[in-house]
Amino acid sequence: MNLGRPALIMMVDDTPANLSVLSDLLSARGFKISVAEDGESALEQLQYVQPDLILLDVLMPHLDGFTTCRRLKERLETRDIPIIFMTALTDTVEKVKGFELGAVDYITKPFQQEEVLARVNAHLALQQLKARLKESEARLERIIDSAMDAIIAVDDASRILLFNCAAERVFRCQAAEAIGGPFQRFLSEALCQVLTEYMSEAGPKTQMWVREGMSARRADGESFSVEATFSRAETNGRALYTVFLRDVQERQRLRGLNLYLQGELRGSEAERDLIGASEGLRAVMKNVRQVAATDASVLLLGETGTGKQMIARAIHASSTRKDQALVTLNCAAIPKDLVESELFGHEKGAFTGALARRLGRFELADKGTLFSTSSASCPWTSKPSSCACSRNGNSSASVAPRPARSMFGSSPPPTATSHAAPATAASAPISTTGSMSSPSPCRPCATARRTCRSSSSISCVVTPRNTASTSRPSRPTP
User: Fold this and answer.
1) Is the domain of 329 the same as that of 191?
2) pTM (2 decimals)?
């Protein structure tokens, strides 16, 4: 056999002559040898070495072979080591006792060289196969658990046998609660009927793809749209059915978010973290930290080039929503006819050119932050819809309100996304001068003034360092 290294065999016997014979025999065949003269010495050595196989004498003083074997099987680190008893006893009862304690075989005394080598090689080969099988099972388990799709295996009675990590996430149910129970609890009537018909078909079965349109149920009773694939295999003469299931809504959301973030990444390659130690910038960052720790709305005021977007990114990065998306919305760049589609998304075929379902910016920013720039340039026809969405925390009437931190102007904060709304001099009563992109060697730093209008709203006004302004910003016109 080939272990990749010489196998280590421990021999435990109180007779030096037996140890000498076995040592010469096994060493000549390329095995490494470890020797112990009694059970206590063997247990002590096993704290430092890990043999591939143990040859254990039955009759020994103090700690006999049976007691030594029992203690080895009680230890987690030695319980899997195969043990072969060596004895001159021919009593069947004694042999059965050894097998019950966990031994894998017997070698009779006096030793026959061919028998010893045959049994040793056979059990080392079995041990190697067990190790390979265990490694393969662990690798397969990691692959299944890392899959993005929910993978569920059921028997011919629809009892759940396998429930991977993605299934736990999709169905909001732990595997320990699901395994052994009926799979029908997670399926709609229509999907359950499709699976039942597939399982009842006679003869060989090919894979079956269930297109989008079916639905499943989470453990809390919520229904959601799915795609699924059914397959069948035979194991030990019994049918095993595997279901690969995908949450269509979640996949569409992730796809839209991925496309958006790719565009953001391309557009922000030149942006870096704010760097500076001036008094003005330190004051700004102090207010950033204060605002980021709250669920309050935020209004950023400043002329073009003063760094409103960088401040918004700093607020988002310092908040509890930093692991969610920061979605930027440039109101000035949206055509009037596409405002509602951009904000709230659209379904396939909703208008000419709508070739696929698209998620709106509000839904992409769910549980994250929505940063809208050039708010005053947004077409007025979209303002009522935007305000309604902000108040309800929804991107459509069919979506339930979801609690979330808000970064909005001085209007009522949304509950589904954070909304940071910067205002330029054209849309705010406080104007600013200077630019962070000034070509001068020392860029003007900005200071921020924090004004609390109520317990749920904070107005953060960005002004140049030397600009004196003490008036409170008024609420922007809705």
Assistant:
1) no
2) 0.45
